[in-house]
Task: structure prediction
Amino acid sequence: MPCQCCKCGFLAVYQRNTEEYFAANDELRETGTSNAYTICVGGKFQVAIGALPEVCLENAADLQREIRDLEPNLNNKLCAAADSVKAVIQKDRECPKFFPYQRGATPKEHRDMKLSEEFRRINQEWRDKAQRDQSDSERRAEEIAERRHGETLAEARKYRIPTIILAAVALIVSVLSAIVSAVLSFRH
Result:
């Protein structure tokens, strides 16, 4: 899915004097320049090299290299044209590390949010798999129980006819025994 660095929470401004990363402010994201990071040279606003968007914090793109590619003489200057910065950070690109920018959150907080979201996704996948595994186990247990029940019924059917015959024989013997007793007692 195409995305733009200007809409990503990992777009950061590296300030060399403090050696810290800060979230690029909204003005820089929209225009390629910001009063916080710009100087005016010859009537044109330019972004100081010391405050260029650095390689994104996820290292998905080398933004300074891309800006330098647009301005071959940049090595001899202290600043880049805002149009070059804007062109690079607003360029459509495919980025697997993109995470939507949340105003007011630092790049580190964006990383924490992304990790938290990934943890929730992985945890949900694990729960879904566990539930599927449990359902599969229950289904297999039911199949085994049905198979054993079927085997028990088949076993019972195997002995049904001999059991009926034995019951019939016992009944006949009992009836004959009663008849013999009755005949014998009637004779006496």
About this structure: The longest strand covers residues 44-48. The CA atoms of residues 27 and 72 lie 25 Å apart. The longest helix spans residues 107-187.
